[in-house]
Amino acid sequence: MVTLADVAQHAGVSASTVSYVLSGKRTISEVTKQRVEHSIRELGYLPNAGARALASSRSNIIALMMPLRTDMYVPVMMEIAIAVATNAREHGFDVLMLTGEEGPSAVRRVVGSGLADAVILMDVELDDARLPLLRESGRPAVLIGLPAQTTGFTCVDLDFAGAGSLCAEHLAGLGHREIAMIGEAPAVYERKTGFAERTVDGLRSRARELGVRVLHRPCEGTYAAMASALGQIFTERPGVTGFVVQNEQAVEPLLSLLRQDRRAVPEDISVVAVCPEQVALQGSVRLTSVTIPAREMARRAVDHLIAKIEGKADDEVVLLQPELVTRASSGPAPV
């Protein structure tokens, strides 16, 4: 590994001179500074985080607040987190992950310590308690998600209301007039998590316009919870012929229970999911779905955050347009 002493020897200066060039603590002649910087590039020297911070007044660290909750589908969260880290590294930034459910206290810790230059928030609620503190701090921030009030923030998200609308349009176009939505776990709605609320709103709004009745049932996603939800749905609405699923863990239990009930997919029941592409493709039936573009959301979030750090971007809301892909799980409503 290349050391500071190696750079000093290559540049023909003292180690302290290299240190001063990195930290900016003392004035160094432009000629000497250029010689040291050339040696740094030539040798591929990577100064430690402390030296970089002294030189630039930055830590080159982004804090990613990603609460890992048991009621959320962790693989999607991790896909976003990995994509954030990968894209941040391309910009010369490292990522500090905060996975606890600390809420505002985590914001206070990050902002107060000065450890991170900027913050990315995930699992955004409509009335998120973290946002007032983050807004007051003046720290550059991007939300992967959409709160009720977006003033003062840049937000990147899939247009989940549009996703719900697309699902309603697809099933209505196939002749379905009674549909049920299998949603996230009840706790997700109790927290008023933005993506879940907006999907239901978009589905219901478009369904009303199209003359389609909707029944929404939150579900933990376990086999037992899905069996209970399905029984309630067919008891309350025996004419249901289409399902919209926004709960990755509930997909296979739903398909299995429909088979046990001798309801064929898609001949008797159509199923449309809002989920990652791998979930849609790897199930026992290839699902018609609206894909959650996790990597694209992460890339957009990082790009916008770097622009804000550099003072090159204003606050804005970026909604990725949903796309529904028709596969084997949806078909005409039974006569």
From TrEMBL:
InterPro entries: HTH_LacI, LacI/GalR-like_sensor, Lambda_DNA-bd_dom_sf, Peripla_BP_I. Keywords: DNA-binding, Transcription, Transcription regulation. The keyword DNA-binding applies. SUPFAM superfamilies: lambda repressor-like DNA-binding domains, Periplasmic binding protein-like I. It comes from the Bacteria. It holds the Pfam family LacI. The keyword Ubl conjugation does not apply. This is LacI family transcriptional regulator. SMART domains: HTH_LACI. Residues 2-56 form the HTH lacI-type domain. GO terms for molecular function: DNA-binding transcription factor activity; transcription cis-regulatory region binding.
